[in-house]
Specification:
Elements lengths: L4 E2 L18 H11 L8 E2 L6 H4 L5 H9 L4 H7 L5 H24 L1 E4 L20 H11 L6 E5 L6 H6 L6 E8 L12 E5 L5 H19 L3 E5 L17 H17 L4 E4 L8 H21 L3
Parallel strand pairs: 1-2, 1-3, 3-8, 4-5, 4-7, 5-6, 7-8
Length: 305
């Protein structure tokens, strides 16, 4: 068996020229993973559109229908930050299906990686910060509903706090939310995760990894999750346009190895999504995202999953 990687051609939807959301990165990531020999076409899995009932496990029906039909009021649409289109609505739903499939494959094989995902700013009744439906929260709820796992740990290492995810699970002891993020970055109004670790602006590789090591092993021992959902945002990179930390590519690769090997060595299955990344150099951005899949391939082989 080889590392399962999830991708759909509809992970990319047309965007207006010059929009700051780097939509093209999803297809370019798929192409880079093939060109660099990280994986082969036969190792990719294609998600399906999820049933409406899955999305309703987290989001209000009125909001789902309003977004999918393009009838949200302009203020709600502006809060999302992405111009509505039928293609984008379809892409949003496909990405949810991708997160669920990633979780299912992780439970089956021990480790799986999506090539999209990490929409952690979406709340039940509205979207925010380029996030429309919260794929992490929906995947957790679907996996529980299908009785594939009971206790879930969400490890969110995007540079921005996973505020939507924190709010959704604030009263739920079956899902533990851990967010390690830049304390002075978006969102200005933070929610309360089960464990928040706000980081100072400009933190570098070594201090970041030392901080992570102070929390993750103990957290796994404490929570004992049936599944870990990992948001591997690379907007922690020193050159990221929307981040305020100072990680290098080497530091991000070390982070991915640290997270994945710590979980897998302890017997905890990991489903990874790529999270945010906004470096203006598209090729550099795609390479930084690919570090997750390169590390996952190595861990998958090392532990003979």
């Amino acid at each position: 068996m080889n590392l399962p990687i999830i991708y759909h051609p509809n992970y990319v939807a047309p965007m207006p020229p010059g929009h700051r959301f780097p939509m093209a990165k999803f297809q370019l990531l798929y192409e880079m993973l093939l060109e660099d020999g990280v994986t082969e076409k036969s190792h990719f899995f294609i998600p399906q559109l999820p049933p409406l009932e899955w999305i309703e496990l987290v989001h209000d029906r009125d909001y789902i229908e309003g977004y999918c039909n393009g009838t949200l009021d302009p203020k709600a649409q502006r809060r999302i930050g992405l111009p509505w289109s039928e293609a984008l609505a379809n892409r949003t739903c496909i990405a949810v299906g991708g997160a669920v499939l990633t979780a299912q494959l992780a439970l089956k094989h021990g480790l799986a990686c999506n090539t999209a995902g990490g929409t952690h700013h979406a709340f039940p009744s509205y979207g925010s910060g380029f996030c429309i439906f919260n794929d992490l929260a929906i995947a957790a709820r679907v996996i529980q509903k299908l009785e594939l796992a009971q206790k879930i740990l969400i490890v969110d290492l995007d540079v921005h706090q996973g505020d939507g995810t924190a709010w959704i699970f604030q009263e739920d002891h079956t899902v533990f939310t851990f967010s390690m993020h830049c304390g002075i970055n978006f969102p200005s109004r933070k929610q309360t995760s089960d464990l928040d670790v706000p980081l100072p602006e400009g933190m570098d590789d070594d201090r970041y990894l030392q901080t992570l090591a102070q929390y993750l092993p103990d957290l796994l021992s404490q929570v004992k999750p049936d599944l870990v959902l990992y948001d591997a945002g690379v907007d922690t990179h020193i050159h990221d346009a929307l981040g305020k930390l100072a990680l290098t590519n080497t530091g991000i690769f070390r982070r991915e190895m640290q997270v994945l090997s710590t979980c897998v060595a302890g017997g905890y299955p990991v489903a990874s999504v790529i999270g945010g990344g906004y470096t203006k150099d598209m090729k550099s951005l795609v390479y930084t995202h690919s570090l997750l899949h390169r590390a996952a391939r190595d861990v998958f082989q090392q532990y003979r999953l």
